[in-house]
Amino acid sequence: DIIPQPLLDQYLSMTDPARAQTVDTEIAKHCAYSLPGVALTLGRQNWHCLKDTYETLASDVQWKVRRTLAFSIHELAVILGDQLTAADLVPIFNGFLKDLDEVRIGVLKHLYDFLKLLHADKRREYLYQLQEFVVTDNSRNWRFRYELAEQLILILELYNPNDVYDYLRHIALTLCSDKVSEVRWISFKLVGDLAILQKFYANNANALGLNFINELVVRFRHCSKWVGRQAFAFICQVGMFSLCSCFMWRQFE
């Protein structure tokens, strides 16, 4: 009753491999691009009409098709709601996480938007996988690591201080030592007042905050290389209040 059945059938037929070979090799990509709009029009109650088509597109041999879906999976999650997202989108999301970098960047750019829609227990499972984003197919793909640091600044609010200390802290310190200065700069914001330190002190996790500051001192202030000591100065600049005040307190203790 929402749209004519022949029109829907025509859309669903776009994933036919024979059609891609004889009509247009880009037809599957166009189908993937418009799928969130079709899902919104049909409504979540009619998701069953699109589910098989979505799964077919998610396993398409063309990475451009999978990349298109990866960039929009967070929008589809909003349309479908938490139950359908957990049942039908999370498995596909997990597959994208292990895909080519060209596909992974799609889920990475909207990682926060997708994770915030999941229940806390499901969301916590991804703490173990965030470390995998540090490794890319091409080590010179520094923008991938830059995007990871930007997303982590947002993602911090989704986890408790202990999870941040046990899992996200290691990633942040690795990014602060990146070979590319642009990645280091955004990572300094990640560990400073704007993110991790603020997370600890806002939740009265002062012991974790102090341990983290001590680790920054050992790792960067006493680094044998000038770039490490420079990093410590920039971290102090970004997190001036929390970091410097606690550092001075540590000196006079």
Automatic annotation (TrEMBL):
The keyword Repeat applies. The gene is Ppp4r1_3. InterPro entries: ARM-like, ARM-type_fold, PP2A_Regulatory_Subunit_A. Keywords: Repeat. It comes from the Eukaryota. This is PP4R1 phosphatase. GO terms for molecular function: protein phosphatase regulator activity. It comes from Rhynochetos jubatus. GO terms for cellular component: cytoplasm.
